[in-house]
Design a protein that fits this description.
By secondary structure, the protein is α/β, with parallel strands linked by helices. The protein has 2 domains: 163 residues, 3-Layer(aba) Sandwich (Rossmann fold); 94 residues, N-(1-d-carboxylethyl)-l-norvaline Dehydrogenase, domain 2 (Orthogonal Bundle), CATH 1.10.1040. It is 51% helix and 14% strand. It has 14 helices and 9 strands. Helix 10 crosses helix 14. The relative contact order is 0.10.
């Protein structure tokens, strides 16, 4: 059982996860570059560490919640990264949405294999409201015994957990979830725009559609007006993975362009620049 849990990244997902873990009696060790976030985590019971290596030394499992693939790998393999402080048998659980190749590369690292370090991918679903409520969904990939050992800790912030298969499978599940989400957002946007053009008020129509066969989660929570910072990144991952397996997904290419068009039309900011 993993009683000592580390969190790397204390943003909109990592902070409530740390809060729920501490509230459920886990010793929480956390690290973030931002002092405001560190202070907020202290207030909910986390012990703040100076580096990922220090978090690793104190923890049975470390959950990584940072933005991009290169940031995840730097947290793990950097000079003061998790592997620099890891004890044999540590579990590294990547909650970030990253590529399948990144997870496979991490699992193949000599230090991981030689020291019996467990690696899971546990990308988070249901968004910020679910993180605040402690009702996230985890779709995981990795060794079943390692996953079972971590489930009590994961249960502090996730009320549904599915092991989909070997390492990388969680990212497959999250990728498909995001594809379906952004497809619904695209269809919702175009459908309601058509309704408005034909003289039907959007909110009244939306409420009616929620009671019909057109109901979907994005329409219910009405994500479309939000900034959607990761939408284009999510669809880029889908298209890259489809290219890797030589699969034609023409709808996905259309969804990527529709999402971009929605953001331009609504004056929403472009996605964060992905570091090289």
């Amino acid at each position: 059982m993993a009683d000592r849990v580390g969190i790397i990244g204390l943003g909109k997902m990592g902070h409530p996860m740390a809060r729920h873990l501490a509230a459920k009696g886990h010793a929480v060790f956390a690290c973030d570059l931002d002092e405001t976030r560190r202070a907020a985590a202290r207030e909910v019971g986390a012990t703040i560490c100076a580096s990922p290596a220090e978090v690793a030394r104190a923890s049975d499992i470390v959950i990584v919640v940072v933005g991009f693939d290169n940031e995840v790998m730097d947290v793990v393999t950097g000079e003061n990264g998790l592997l620099a402080g890891a004890r044999d048998g540590l579990v590294i659980a990547v909650a970030s949405t990253v590529s399948i190749d990144t997870m496979h590369s991490m699992g193949a690292l000599p230090a991981v294999r030689e020291r019996g370090i467990g690696v899971l991918d546990i990308p988070l679903c249901r968004g910020e409201p679910a993180a605040e409520a402690g009702k996230l969904l985890l779709m995981a990939g990795g060794d079943a015994a390692v996953f079972e050992r971590c489930k009590p800790a994961f249960s502090a912030f996730a009320n549904d957990q599915y092991l989909l298969g070997p390492l990388g499978s969680g990212q497959v599940g999250k990728m498909i979830n995001n594809l379906l989400l952004w497809s619904c957002v695209s269809a919702n946007h175009e459908g309601l725009k058509l309704g408005e053009a034909l003289g039907v008020q959007s909110e009244t129509l939306r409420q009616a559609l929620l009671k019909s066969s057109g109901q979907n989660w994005a329409l219910d929570t009405w994500l479309q007006p939000r900034p959607m910072p990761w939408a284009e990144k999510d669809m880029a991952i889908v298209m890259e993975e489809a290219d890797n397996v030589r699969l034609s997904l023409p709808l996905c290419g259309t969804v990527r362009e529709v999402i971009k068009g929605i953001k331009i039309e609504k004056g929403l900011p472009p996605p964060p620049r992905i570091p090289k």
